[in-house]
Amino acid sequence: MQKIEFIFPDFDYPDRFAGVYRMTLDDKWFYFGSTVYLWRRFRKWRTNIKIGFPKNNKIKNLLPHISKVSFEVMEIVANESMLKVREDLYIKKYWGNELLLNRAPSALSLKGIVYTPEEQEIMKSYGMACAKKVAKLKKDGTIDVIYESISEATRQNKLARTDIARVLKFNNRSTNGMIFRKVDDDFNIIEPPERISKRPPKKFKVKGISNPPKPVCQYDMQGNLIKIHDSIKLASKSIGQNDPGNMRRHLKGDGKSIGGFKFKYYQQ
Questions:
Q1: 17 and 63 share one domain
Q2: Among 1, 89, 137, 146, which residue's Cβ finds the most Cβ atoms within 10 Å?
Q3: What DSSP letter does each residue of 171-208 carry, written as one string?
Q4: CATH number for position 90
């Protein structure tokens, strides 16, 4: 990526200004945004562009081809609650312009907003996700109520958004006794996918059935066979040890001898 020149507006940087700004790439492509702290946002854009990772994919794809980025303050907004509304006016004014780099036709939050099918197609083409419908199910699995978004389901049922999200991601079966599912455009329930475990199946012991004991051979320190014991427990008792744990560790290779003898599993 070639070296990029950054041009900032001439105003008192240390002061905190909230407003709407315009970022222009090579005096051609442009992007509108808003923030409560303009100078800090400009510096953040400069950092993200330098490292090559801006969140906007349209801007990211242009980085190898540009050499200049300039910032312009469109207006200072005294009432910070009106920031998105003012930004939205600029986006709608230039929406449809091929040089506009904003990904959505509106600056307002996508949560809970119902867009027309035409607007949804436009937003999908720019990689933006629209609010998805959520259904609350009855006990028999049929649809009880359909909400336009997770936010609406949260408000109507007085639940935490994260609780509903866990159910929609199939991490939890239900929340507060209620089951939620996503629905497609034809109002069909999106069922959870079949989970395939990567872990091998557990081996369960059947009650009353146990593995037969393994015979153990006892040798002296010169390697001469002394006796073959029917089990590890009997081999431990032969050297005066009631706990077979030490014998098992010795058979696995822990220590050269135990009780002055060597022991190995009997092999036919």
A1: yes
A2: 137
A3: SSS-BTTBEEEEB-TT--B-PPPPP---SPPP-PPPTT
A4: 3.40.1440.10
φ/ψ of 62, rounded to 5, equals -90, -15
HEC-encoded secondary structure of 28-55: CEEEEEEECCHHHHHHHHHHHHHHCCCC
Phi, psi of 43, rounded to the nearest 5 degrees: -65, -35
Q: Rounded to an integer, what distance in angstroms lies between the CA atom of residue 39 and that of residue 49?
A: 15
Does residue 139 form part of some domain?
yes
Q: Is residue 252 part of a domain?
A: yes
Per residue in 196-221, pLDDT (tens digit) is 666 666 665 555 556 778 899 999 98
Number of Cβ within 10 Å of residue 209's Cβ equals 6
Q: Is residue 50 part of a domain?
A: yes
Structural domain includes residue 41? yes
Q: Percent of the chain scored above 90 by pLDDT? A: 21
Query: Rounded distance, CA 215 to CA 243, Å?
Result: 17
Q: Are residues 96 and 20 in the same domain?
A: yes
How many other CB atoms sit within 10 Å of the CB of residue 96? Answer: 9
Mean pLDDT, rounded, for 4-17: 77
Where does the pLDDT of residue 128 fall: very low under 50, low under 70, confident under 90, or very high at 90 and above?
very low
Q: Which two tokens stand for residue 10?
A: 């001439």
Number of independent structural domains in the chain: 3
